[in-house]
Amino acid sequence: MSDSSEMIHLKQTTSIMDSSAKLLEDSLLIIWNDRDPEKRLKAMAEIYAADIVFYESNDGPAIEGYEAINELISKLQSQWPLEFKFELSRPSHVNHQVQHITWTLGIPGQTPVATGMDIAIVENHQIKLLHLLLDAPAQ
């Protein structure tokens, strides 16, 4: 490969990885923070594969599809104060089709009530599998 074709390939790969990394951030910051179920569904169609599977815990069943995930988000949000937001602890990490982010949940500027990480598997520029790993509460 010539130097110029290597540079083009590197730019294309970086661009794909940059947009890919944004998927998981958008999942958290746009979908999981939005309190409007209709807006969430529209965002899901852009960010999630139609057959997305979400694993909330190792003990629970897989949550499949936009509607089921949307219902879960609505249920969880109904238990939280309106000021609660997810925030990134640091930017996402990407290794090909695997993405990882760490986050906090709570009122911005205050001690978070929960922390954890999301791990996603991306196929065809959409999140196909999403796994939540919730940190154990501080003792």
Structural overview:
The chain is an alpha+beta fold and about 140 residues long. The protein contains three helices and six strands; from the N terminus they run ααββαββββ. It has helices at about 5-30, 35-45, 65-75; strands at about 50-55, 65, 85-95, 100-105, 115-125, 125-135. The protein has a six-stranded mixed beta sheet. Helix 1 runs antiparallel to helix 2 (about 35-45) and helix 2 packs across helix 3 (about 65-75). The longest helix is centred in the N-terminal third of the chain and has 29 residues, at about 5-30. It is globular and about 40 Å long. Mean pLDDT is about 85; it is low at about 5-20.
List the helices and strands and how they pair.
Blueprint: H1 3-31, H2 37-47, E1 48-55, E2 63-64, H3 66-77, E3 85-95, E4 98-106, E5 114-123, E6 126-134
Short description:
The protein is of the alpha+beta class. Helices cover 37% and strands 35% of the residues.
List keywords for this structure.
139 residues; alpha+beta; 6-stranded mixed β-sheet
Topology pattern, helix = H, strand = E? HHEEHEEEE
Strand content: 35-45%
Instruction: Let me know the number of strands.
Output: 6
> What structural class do you assign from the helix and strand content?
alpha+beta
Radius of gyration: 16 Å
Ends: how far apart? 56 Å
Counting H and I runs of at least 4 residues, what is the number of helices? 3
Helix content class: 25-40%
Mean pLDDT: 87
Largest β sheet strand count, sense and barrel closure: 6 strands, mixed
Side by side, the strands of the main sheet go: 2-1-6-5-4-3
Instruction: Categorize the overall geometry.
Output: globular
Uncertain residue ranges: 4-18
> What multimeric state do the chains show?
single chain
